[in-house]
Amino acid sequence: MAYWVEIDQDECMSSGRCVADYPAAFAFDDDELATVLPTSGNLTDQQLLRAARNCPSRAIQIFDTDGTLLE
Ligand code: SF4
Hints:
Elements: E1 4-7, H1 17-21, E2 26-28, E3 34-36, H2 45-54, E4 60-63
Antiparallel strand pairs: 1-4, 2-3
Bound molecules: iron/sulfur cluster.
């Protein structure tokens, strides 16, 4: 993984899509909001982009190595 992933928990609607599709990278916290796991580095850049595009509330943010927001 070269890209960086963050979640805007203010936008997360707890749909569970990212957690279900990529359990190695995302999990719910105690408030049932998605968080990024340390193992997210095991996902490919394409998988991260797919996770962001599939988020119904656009809460998953992907940055490239320059810190530019991609999704
Ligand atoms: S897919 Fe988006 S809205 Fe759904 S749990 Fe993940 S971050 Fe939250």
